[in-house]
């Protein structure tokens, strides 16, 4: 999935600024153009994860033409681009996985899950989300 990004030109003394118009408050920067785009993709992933964790709606990417037509993004100081994000970030489909762990670690995991009143899967998911 590709989100349009608006990049403010950098210089030898200023970083490139990046705004993701479809995701309010999502922005990033980088000393080099490529770094700014890469950091924008990371910022989008974090924004999406946070929104989903809070039960908020995640807007789909707008068309580039629709965004470029907005007066707040007119002018030569802006460069348009795209940042790619993994569509799996949006997918809450349950998937069965097979993992391999030493028995002593599995026993410790099961004990902690039981103490927390969780299933093994629920405990692992909770740990991953809180990390």
Automatic annotation (TrEMBL):
Q: Which residues form the HicB-like antitoxin of toxin-antitoxin system domain?
A: 3-128
InterPro entries with a match to the protein in the record: HicB-like, Ribbon_hlx_hlx, TA_system_antitoxin, TTHA1013/TTHA0281-like
Signal sequence span is none
**Which processes are annotated in GO (biological process)?**
regulation of DNA-templated transcription
The record ties this protein, via PANTHER family, to:
ANTITOXIN HICB, UPF0150 PROTEIN SSL0259
Name of this chain's protein: Type II toxin-antitoxin system HicB family antitoxin
């Amino acid at each position: 999935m590709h989100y349009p990004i608006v990049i403010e030109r950098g210089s030898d003394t200023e970083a490139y600024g990046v705004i993701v118009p479809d995701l309010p408050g999502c922005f990033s920067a980088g000393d080099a153009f490529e770094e700014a785009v890469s950091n924008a993709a990371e910022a989008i992933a974090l924004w999406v994860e946070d929104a989903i964790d809070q039960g908020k709606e995640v807007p789909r990417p707008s068309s580039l033409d629709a965004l470029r037509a907005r007066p707040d993004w007119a002018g030569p100081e802006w460069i348009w681009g795209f940042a790619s994000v993994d569509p799996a970030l949006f997918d809450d489909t349950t998937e069965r996985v097979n993992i391999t762990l030493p028995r002593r670690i599995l026993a410790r995991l099961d004990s902690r899950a039981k103490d927390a009143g969780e299933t093994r899967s629920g405990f692992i998911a909770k740990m991953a989300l809180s990390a």
